[in-house]
From TrEMBL:
Family: Belongs to the short-chain dehydrogenases/reductases (SDR) family.
One Pfam family recorded for the sequence: adh_short
Protein name: Epimerase
UniProt cross-references to PANTHER family, sorted A to Z: DEHYDROGENASE/REDUCTASE SDR FAMILY MEMBER 7B, DEHYDROGENASE_REDUCTASE SDR FAMILY MEMBER 7B
Amino acid sequence: MKLLFFPFLHYNRAELRQRLAGKTVLLTGASYGIGEALAEALAPTQAHLLLVARTEAKLREVQQRVEAQGGVATVLPCNLAQRDQVQALAAQLAAWPNGIDLVVNNAGHSIRRSIFASLERMHDFERTMELNYYAPVQLLLALIPGLVARQGQIINISAINVLLLPPPHWAAYQASKTAFDQWLRCVGPELQRRGVKTSSIYLPLVRTRMILPTKAYRHMPAMQPHQVAALICRAIIAQRRTYTPWWILPAQLAALLLREPWEAWLGRRR
């Protein structure tokens, strides 16, 4: 069943090395899960990896594994939910020697909570927007001139539910992920005209620590971080605008046709 929904993805490693040799790659959310797996996948390419996350000690571990494979990595600790830290990082990256060629926006924060348990938790909505929306926008506003000059690429790690019916209890997360998805889709054509490629990867469930607090997800089919890393490597090579599971079209059709009965059923649940 897992192979049916989440097949293993092959990519041409020689072509990936050719694409990234001598390039600089910015990877956010690099300390765990998808970011950690991607850093290791890119280590043999001879790209210079700029690893961004909040936990410096964990970033150092990832850096050591990259360097053990002969790769080059620089650790840039930053709490992307703190706008002053993002501003300082953006200034540092905008002045990076030789510029940045590829940005992988992977960092994210997920919250699952009923709206009735959130009435006094405005900070839930603020922190998801800070990390999932404002931080990547703030970084890219600083990096776009350099990306244009170097004909670079932006890859956004999005979520499949951005394209489907929004589920209950996920208001903070869904709103923030949709906000950046819409932002990148809006600026994408302008960037394309200036030679900057944009790719949005819409992921289903991924087996990372982000989903651990949700008990219902523990036994559901999910992608593994290394599978997502392979998908990102394919996106670096092919530079398609969107990547979705093969079953997205029937899922979107079902979402369109079944929205009213689905919401009515949810409304009757206690």
